[in-house]
Amino acid sequence: MSQAPNPEINDLLQELLAGVQGVLGSHFASMYLEGSLASGDFDAASDIDFIVATDEEVSGELFAALQAMHDCIAKRNTIWAIQLEGSYISLPALRRYDPANATHPNIERGEDERLKMVHHDHAGVIHRSILREHGITLAGPAPQTLVDPVSPDDLRIAVQAIIPQWGARLLADPTVIQQQCGYQSYIVLSLCRMLYTLQHGTVVSKATAARWARQALEPRWTPLIDRAWIVRSNGQGQASEEDVNGTLDFLRFTLLQNG
Description:
The protein is α+β, with helices and mostly antiparallel strands. The protein folds into 2 domains: about 5-145, GMP Synthetase, Chain A, domain 3 (2-Layer Sandwich), CATH 3.30.300; about 150-255. Helices cover about 55% and strands about 15% of the residues. It contains 11 helices and 6 strands. A 6-stranded mixed sheet has the order 5-4-3-2-1-6, with helices on both faces. Strand 4 (about 105) and strand 5 (about 115-120) form a beta hairpin. The termini are far apart.
């Protein structure tokens, strides 16, 4: 746990690992950190991304026990207790992304979130790439032994599948962008990451993608990206009409780049 940025997160991860191993028993294979903790760009606005590998798909009583464990952890007296974001994936499904075998227990960050069964979309390809290249092992073998290499074309294809899904949903109901400026910021910075992957065939953090986008894209996007980064650390309240419209325009621009 030496990579944890502070003792609170270290203690939380110790409890999570112990809880996961206690519930899964012999079904536990390994546990990893990914996301910003693994890439080195973790900050106060980050979540705690993890992946647990199991010997078989989790369901029934095991799922219920894991859900109860996460409910208990969410009540801990630390702001990080509701910043956990991760999935429980069987070893065969972890090896490579398969849309036909992509429904796994998942928890997102948030005060009212619970562990639930979720169909993982093509973002699973991106998560596997981050895990393989940068994952931090909390228990079990190195992630490179469990995850097949993810090529630049694999990453581009995944992003090309994700962008239209985002576009259709957000353009059909732009009110979801306005409801919370933190989510509006997340969309802008995630689009920067997707554009970077389309260009370079690799995955980088939001911070790196935002710096790249400010230099590589047209200057008209710079104020929107700058405001998104500022809002990221203080994402309370509704997004302004200017930022909602700017985000929709940036989304349309990304759709055009996606071909």
